Amino acid sequence: STAGKPIRCKAAIVRTPGEPLVMEEIFVAPPNRYEVRIKIICTSLCYSDVTFWRLKEFPGIFPRILGHEAIGVVESVGEGVDKISEGDTVIPAFLADCEECSDCRSKKSNLCSKLPFKVSPGMPRDGTSRFTDLNGEVIHHFLSVSSFSEYTVVDIAHVTKVDPSVPPNRACLLSCGVSTGVGAAWRTAKVEAGSTVAIFGLGSIGLAVAEGARLCGATRIIGVDLNPTKFEIAKKFGVTDFVAAGECGNKSAGQVVMEMTDGGADYCFECIGSSSLVREAYECCRQGWGKTVVLGVDKPNAEITLSSFDVLHHGKILIGSLFGGLKAKSDIPVLLKRYTDKAKLSRRAVQTTKPAIARTLKQSFEKGHINARKDSTK
Ligand code: CXF
Ligand code: ZN
Question: Per the UniProt record, which residue ranges are transmembrane (predicted)?
Fold first, then answer.
């Protein structure tokens, strides 16, 4: 067993900001108290990785291992870890969910106050690193996850145990992007059935917001993007109307949304990371109850300018959302279950259209060749 010993493995390291990542061998130390060491099964790229790869000044700590959208299997656990064991499938997250502090116990917040969110170069509890290169030089962490490595060490407040039968290339996306977008519509905005939604930016976050808004029953989902080819893919996620932001003539995209909605959208989402676009989204949000959610990550020193007249006279809400307002440990399993139940539903559809295949499947179930989902959590 590798437990208790450093593991030598490969990782993609940022030595210099903005320069290509370097594949290197590193040592990953065993997990300390309240930590687990994870073998990464799948990891994907979130645009925040790119933002922090480029950023020289904030917080400017290199070399470091990026990556924070992942799924893996626990290789070993540190002292004091009792709810997670070796072999468990886990999803790491950049926000802590300690389940104990007043924020984690409150339904109103997902911002843990015991291990508050910060872009720290080390582990959340003691700030130190578990990574060294072959010369013994320290390699820094990123967002408490650092998944661009074959192995990583993560604090137990940052990991959620999940059903091991989930498809890892799908489940991985719940580690950041899909949770952030779906959660922003579901938990932060609390989009209601019948509402009109405007989404600025149809990247993976914007598309996930559309999916969340559709799940909440929004009837009109307006997508805004500079790239007109985005509409086709966005339709698959629930977008019903499209504004090509580069083709609005002398109007802004926000003004076009305002006209389309006869007074503004009930909910607006900024999914680009541009503070001037936050203002535009806020301006085309319905007076009286409109809610604008900020999801995009702008430069750390960027400021949002709003007309004080608009704020005072129009009674609209502006709110930021980290991780879509979700609590990782309780909400990731809910989203995963929706995904598996939908997969089950489409399997049922196959059964009705293809009776022969259905019979074969049924026989396989009876013979125990295929495990029913509900048994696989054991
Ligand atoms: C972001 C949220 C804002 C700070 C950096 C990380 N989350 C995930 O990509
Ligand atoms: Zn991310």
Answer: none
